[in-house]
Amino acid sequence: MKKISQKTIERGVFYIRTLEALLKDGQTLISSNQLANITGFSDAQIRKDISSFGKVGRPGIGYSTAELRNILQDFVLKNEVVHVALFGVGSLGAAILKYPGFHKDGIKLVAAFDKMKNKVGATINGVKVYDPKRAVDVIKKTHADIGVIAVPKEHSQEVADIIVLSGLRGIVNFSPISIAVPKNVMVKNIDLRVEFFSLFCNMQYNCGI
Amino acid sequence: MKKISQKTIERGVFYIRTLEALLKDGQTLISSNQLANITGFSDAQIRKDISSFGKVGRPGIGYSTAELRNILQDFVLKNEVVHVALFGVGSLGAAILKYPGFHKDGIKLVAAFDKMKNKVGATINGVKVYDPKRAVDVIKKTHADIGVIAVPKEHSQEVADIIVLSGLRGIVNFSPISIAVPKNVMVKNIDLRVEFFSLFCNMQYNCGI
DNA sequence: CTGTGTGAAGGCCTTCACAGCC
DNA sequence: GGCTGTGAAGGCCTTCACACAG
User: Fold this and answer.
1) Do B197 and A152 touch (CB under 8 A)?
2) Is any Cβ of chain B less than 8 angstroms from the Cβ of A186?
C-alpha cells in the first residue's frame, strides 16, 4: 500500500469537514478548483492528495461529493471512532465537553477527570466525571484512545504521567508548557499564545513583502 | 535583513514559552541539546533557527537562557503586544477569556462581542462585552490586531465579514467550517475534530511502521 | 472546453557533519 | 571533553504542465 504523508492526512481531515458542509447544502459535485477556493489549498495539492487514495474523480466533471467524502473517511479515518478522555473540567475542559458535533462525527468523549471533589460524579453533556485516581481503570474500561490535558499548567506533567501509565499513546496538550513523555507517545500541543503570536508574526511578514 | 521562515517563527514562539519556564526554575544556561529534549525538535534544528537571529550562543557553553529569550522576543515578537478581539462569549469564548497568562505575556484581550443581550455590558476577567453591531467602532478604538471566532458555526461567516470590515488582517477561527475572506487576510483554523483525528491517524501510522 | 491524474521540476526545510571555539 | 554555527546533502512537499478523459 502506498505511503500517505501526515500532511496529506491532516488536509484529508479538513477536506472531510468541508465536504460534509457541502453535502448539507445539497452539492453533489465538486471540482478540485472549487475545493481549493473554499479550503485555501491549491488545486494541484488537492488533486495530488486525493490521488493517493485512488482514482476517484471523473475528468471534465469533478468529484462526487458523497463518494469523495466516503473514500476519505475510509482511508483517513478508517471509519473508526476516536475515544477521548479529558483531564480537567475547568472552563476549557467544559468548553470541550460542550463542543458541538463530536458525537456524530467520529469523536466520542468517553470520560472526564477532575481533582475537585465537587465535580467528581457529575455528568456533563452525557460524560461522567471521575476522580483522576481511577484513571487507569476507567481508561481501560472505556477504551480511550487519546488523552486531553486541560488542567492548570502546574499539574500538566502529572496528568501526562497518568495518561502514559494508562497506556494511551496520543495526547493533546492545551497547557502552555511542554510535557515529557516516552518517544512512542505522540503529543500535539495547542497553546493559544503560540497560535496568536505566530499568526500575528506571519501577518507582519506577509504585509512587509 | 535575512528572511526568517514561518516555521522558524512558530518554533521561535515555542522556544520563548519554554525558556520562560526554565527561567522560572532558575536555569541560567541551556544547550541546544537540552532544548531539543524538552521541545521535541532536533538540536540541529534549534541551532539553525537561533542562528537566523545572530550569534547568540557560546561554543562549549550553550545559550544564556535570559539572553536567548530576549533576543527571540525582539525578533519574533518585536516586543509588541498582540491585541485580540473575541467574538462569541459561549463556553469556548469564556474559556479564552479566562485563559491564564495572557496579559503578562504579550497578548491582550481588548474586547469581546456577543449577540445575547444579557451578556452585552458585562465585564469578564476585565474584558468588556459589546454588541457586535458596534464592532467596527470598538475594534478601531481598542486597536485590535486579530479577531477570534468562537461563535456557533451558523454565524461564523457573518462574524468573519464583520472582522474583515473592521480592517483586521488576521483571524483565528475555532468554528468547524471554513470561512471565506479576502486573500490579504490570514486565517488560522483550530478545529478540535481535525486535531483529534489527525493525531489519531498519525498514531496509527507511526505504530504500523 | 472542463477537469482529473501524474511525472518532472522546483523549492523549502531538516539533518548531517564538521570546523572552530571554550 | 562539550557545544555552537553553518555549508552541504538529502528528503519531503508543493507546484507546474501536460497527457488524457468526458
Assistant:
1) no
2) yes
Q: Identify whether residues A87 and A170 lie together within a single domain.
A: yes
Q: Which domain holds residue A55?
A: 6-76
Whose C1' is closest to the CA of A30: which nucleotide? C3
Verify that A21 and A106 share a domain, yes or no.
Answer: no
- Per the domain annotation, does B142 fall within a domain? yes
Supply the CATH number for residue A44's domain: 1.10.10.10
Given a cut of 70, is residue B146 above it in pLDDT? yes
Look-up of cell digits 481598542? B142
The model's pTM: 0.90
User: Is residue A209 over pLDDT 70?
Assistant: no
In a domain, B201, yes or no: no
Q: What separation in angstroms does the CA of A67 have from each of A19, A54, A64, B145, B204?
A: 10, 12, 5, 41, 24
Instruction: State the DSSP H helix or E strand holding residue B160, giving kind and residue range, or none if neither.
Output: helix B156-165
Q: Which residue is nearest to nucleotide C12 (CA to C1')?
A: B5
Nearest CA of chain B to the CA of A61: how many Å?
A: 24
Cell (9 digits) for B208: 504500523
Residue B188: closest CA among A89, A200, A181: A200
Same domain flag for B93 and B175: yes
Q: Is residue A1 part of a domain?
A: no
pLDDT tens profile B36-92: 999 999 999 999 999 999 999 999 999 999 999 999 998 887 778 899 999 999 999
Nearest to B17 among A77, A100, A176 (CB): A176
- The number of folded domains in chain B is 2
* Confidence at A23, pLDDT banded by 50, 70, 90: very high
Using CB atoms, which residue from B172, B178, B207 is nearest to A18? B178
> Do A22 and A60 reside in the same domain of the chain?
yes
User: From the CA of B157, how many Å to the nearest CA of chain A?
Assistant: 12
A71 and A45 in one domain? yes
Give just the sign of the alpha carbon dihedral A43, A44, A49, A51: positive
Q: How confident is the model at residue B148 (pLDDT cuts 50, 70, 90)?
A: very high
Residue listed under C-alpha cell 496579559: B103
